[in-house]
Design a protein that fits this description.
Length: 177
């Protein structure tokens, strides 16, 4: 399994209790969906290593787990390591909700300017993520906010948006002339 075929789940953060349990931070929107999780890939020296465990407690984004088939000392050596799951385990989203990796490659259609290019990537800045759209070699950055996203057409691979007034012109000039 390669990292590109997986999504980032979280991180092993610290030991808990006296029985070798570990705390996992789950960097997900709905941690309760992972309460029955029994395994994950742990990134160790650039490789994904499968580890099995059972979830003893789930409190918000923190899960207390007991790793199987490894000692408490071995489990402690995983502190600070990232956790991954295969992409096919992501819960399916509908409507205008989407995963960033899911819309890469989509055509982006603005309600005023029309086809403004192809979504190359989602840049995750701390303040706000941005769509990086490329049109004939020119980069257009669009904020990823609910007010901008009008429709996600997964079948046609089209993202319909309503960009803030003047934003697209700033990058591409008036493309409707």
């Amino acid at each position: 399994m390669n990292i590109k075929d997986c999504f980032y789940l979280g991180k092993v953060t610290k030991p808990w209790g006296v029985k070798g349990q570990m705390v996992l931070f789950l960097d997900v929107d709905a941690p309760e969906e992972y309460a029955g999780l029994d395994s994950a890939f742990v990134e160790v020296k650039g490789k994904l290593v499968p580890h099995f465990f059972h979830v003893d407690q789930l409190n918000g984004n923190k899960a207390v787990v007991t790793f199987e088939e490894i000692s408490a000392e071995q489990a402690q050596s995983l502190v600070g390591h990232d956790l991954y799951l295969p992409l096919d385990l992501l819960p399916k989203l509908e409507g205008n909700r989407f995963y960033f990796h899911e819309v890469v490659g989509f055509k982006v259609i603005d309600d005023e300017k029309g086809d403004i290019g192809t979504l190359e990537q989602v840049i995750e800045y701390p303040a706000q993520p941005l769509f990086q759209v490329m049109k004939n070699g020119t980069e257009v950055l669009i904020p990823v906010i609910d007010e901008v996203i009008k429709k996600v057409d997964r079948e046609q691979k089209i993202l319909y948006i309503e960009a803030p007034k003047g934003l697209i012109d700033m990058y591409l000039g008036d493309i409707n002339k």
